[in-house]
Amino acid sequence: MSQRTKIKALLQSQQTEIDVTVKGWVRAFRSNRFIALNDGSTNNNIQIVVDFENTDPALLKRITVGAALSVEGKLIASLGKGQTVEVVATEIEILGDSDPEKYPIQPKKHSLEFLRENAHLRFRTSTFGAIFRVRNSLAFAVHQFFQERGFVYLHTPVITASDAEGAGETFHVTNFDLDNIPKTETGEIDFKQDFFGRATNLTVSGQLEGELGAMALSDIYTFGPTFRAENSNTTRHLAEFWMIEPEVAFNDLVDNMDLAEDMLKYVIKYALDKNADDIEFLTQRLTEEEKTKPQNERSEMTLLEKLQFCLNNDFERLTYTEAIDILKESTPNKKKKFAYPVEGWGTDLQSEHERYLVEKHFKKPVILTDYPKEIKAFYMRQNDDGKTVRAMDILFPGIGEIVGGSQREERLDKLEQRMNEMGIPTEELWWYLDTRRFGSCPHAGFGLGFERLVLFVTGMGNIRDVIPFPRFPKNAEF
Ligand code: 4AD
Ligand code: MG
Question: CB–CB of 238/467 below 8 Å?
């Protein structure tokens, strides 16, 4: 295997006048002389200087935007402006041609919509290179955070027979023979038989299985893909997204909030340190985008300032009931009212309400707790008031809900009673209820929507732009 030096390392090299081999894709080629080459290790390109007078003109013609090259040459201190080092080429090999007439990615600014249609090639742009390096760092930091604290990474199943959230938003998993689909007596498709004779679906959450692990290993987390069959075309929802779900035995809701806040701050700080240049690039991108908006809609802080602000301030903690009182008294601005007026206690908050609390009222991340039991899942611990549960949602500026979690109902009688009230079959979840039968204990956990975190840290506006291969209604080609 041939040696190559990554462009990031070359650009940081203290040594010059050394022979190097560099490989990458052409971002630009000007004056038949200067190639901007990128290999994805950094947003910055290395400049390759071509001795065009002594280079075969046929080869020069093949140095086009998008072509893959292998270059041997000498790393020297750059004579030109804009870079500290450059490579004077002694040998250029074209590894893969790229027809400039057909290659969709040109050295100019493309719209995000255009790049979404060319998602198979969008990795080759500066913006998407930065996004996916930041995403990688955040994923690594999540593992590092939990591993440093002695959590066990537990792999929960993708195929399951349960609907952890009880919201009925599941994708069936089927191995039906399409020519011989089993039917019920009344002639409908018999989904009860879809997976080797059993009804199954793709998981909406690893929580219930995660709780089984926590009731023995004490501190666990999951980090895997989850699936929701909600037909929503929003900038915050995907049909397939990644979720991080810690579950901790003996934790109560306050411990749970502390863990979530610590984790969010840890991973954001990690990305800020590790990907300083990418975040700087994304900050500039967002600042440019903001300039196209009317003055009163522009963000008061840059992306970098927003991230630093999040690290340096405690999240605001209050109950759902306190939030409703604030919202009842508020209008989003002098003229406008909420599209969904907050009339009374008990209704779920709309995203406009969440964003008002975070962006206008408190101007910082907010943790709302103790929601009405009617709008939350069956497994949350019931408060003594008989009306609310030990739930927590973390709301972030520009994002809305980023984390959903709770202290769990560890009392068997209360849990069974709530499941019966909500029509959740206790016999199907017998294995889950066993944790409450044998050595039950207080415990708590939460789910962090990974793409919503990546949205926040990259300052992007659409969740489809922060996952390499977005899945949303009618989109699953590659
Ligand atoms: O609030 P959710 O539905 O909570 C659960 O699934 C719990 N079982 C988690 C737990 O306690 N272990 O989802 C958790 C988070 C949300 O706060 C949101 O960030 C994200 O997952 N999320 C989505 N992200 C992208 N697309 C979707 N369709 C999402 N639905 C939820
Ligand atoms: Mg939720």
Answer: yes
Location of each CATH 3.30.930.10 domain in the chain: 126-169+204-465
What ligand 1 atom has the least distance to the C-alpha of 448? 15
Cα–Cα distance for residue pair 20/86, rounded to 1 Å: 11
- Residues making up the chain, counted from first to last: 478
HSE-CB for 381 with a 13 A CA cutoff = 21
Ligand 1, residue 228: give the atom nearest the CA: 28
Distance 74 CA to ligand 1 centre (A): 51
Coil, strand or helix: which one is 7? Answer: helix
Domain 126-169+204-465 is in which class?
Answer: alpha beta
Provide the 3-class DSSP secondary structure of residue 188. Answer: coil
Query: Ligand 1: which residue has its CA nearest to atom 23?
Result: 449
Question: What CATH number labels 7-107?
Answer: 2.40.50.140
Distance CA 380, CA 154 (A): 21
* CA 245–ligand 1 middle distance (angstroms): 9
Question: Per residue in 112-131, pLDDT tens?
Answer: 999 999 999 999 999 999 99
Nearest ligand, CA 348: 2
Residues in contact with 53: Cβ distance below 8 Å, sequence separation at least 6, in sequence order: none
Which ligand has the nearest atom to the CA of 256?
Answer: 1
Predicted complex: ipTM over 0.90 = yes
pLDDT for 175-194, tens place per residue?
888 888 888 899 988 877 77
Domain with CATH 2.40.50.140 in the chain: 7-107
CB 131 within 8 A of CB 286: no
* Nearest atom of ligand 1 to the alpha carbon of 245: 12
